[in-house]
Amino acid sequence: MDFNHSDRAQVLVEALPYIQRYYGKTIVVKYGGNAMVSDELRKAVISDIILLKLVGINVVVVHGGGPEISEMLKKTGKESRFVNGLRYTDEETMDIVQMVLCGKVNKDLVATINRAGGNAVGLCGLDGGMLKAVRRMENNVDYGLVGDIVSVEPKAILDAIENGFIPVISTVAQGEDAETSYNINADTAAAKIAIALGAEKLILLTDIRGLLRDRNDEETLISQVRLPEVPVLIKDGVIAGGMIPKVDCCVDAARNGVKRTHILDGRIPHSILIEVLSHAGIGTMIC
């Protein structure tokens, strides 16, 4: 298909009202999955983030690093273990989580953004007491040093934004109930950070198209869900498995002041730009 000058101009014209709407506002992006391990998708995500920043939209990146943590555990001869979808985190695993997330993954991502012409700074939940958590205890299930966030202090993030940086945040929290660090689910952390910042949007990048009415058919995408519909969709089994915690994060954010929350397919190049700066929109919006 030919893409002429008029088509290019139309794309820019279509983006204008969205740039005006979100100028000076904050969008929180949870970055992970295929978009993090594929070179092509990584470059697309990074360029999206830099472009949004250049047109005056504040982007806060919250990242995971599950594959990198698993790889490091394997190198040390330690097996990854999961409980209800969360990584069981003993003291040795917590040391590796903190080293990998706050060190290698965070700094590699910051360097990638900066090499591409952005201006990023790396932060972790320990900086400035940003994330404070208590040990997760749910139905007497032991998750080890996995935490539930009890407070978010956004000052370090706001200072970074005010000084023109793109904050890149790894999700390790300071213990409120013990002298330890806690491993925090990145989706959950992104939602709590979005609430604390009063963000306009929360975007969770995933490895599927969005919420599907039939999990085996990507053509059954549900493009929009309103909060009262969520319990019904859970009861009907439409929201199930690993999608439940993602939807819970979006519901939490939407109930606490974040205007739009999105579950996007990180396998689609430039999915962030398509969602934020076009009429089309993709994935599932929960509002």
Largest sheet data: 8 strands, mixed
Q: How many distinct beta strands?
A: 14
Helix content: 40-55%
- Name the shape in a single word: globular
| Tally of helical runs | 10
What class, by secondary structure content? alpha/beta
Main sheet strand line-up: 5-8-2-1-11-13-14-12
Please tell me about this protein's structure.
41% of the residues lie in helices and 24% in strands. It is of the alpha/beta class and 287 residues long. Helix 4 packs across helix 5 and helix 7 runs parallel beside helix 9. The longest helix has 25 residues, at 91-115. It is globular, with a radius of gyration of 19 Å.
Q: What distinguishing features does this structure have?
A:
14 strands; 4-stranded mixed β-sheet
Concise account of the structure shown:
The protein contains ten helices and 14 strands. It is of the alpha/beta class.
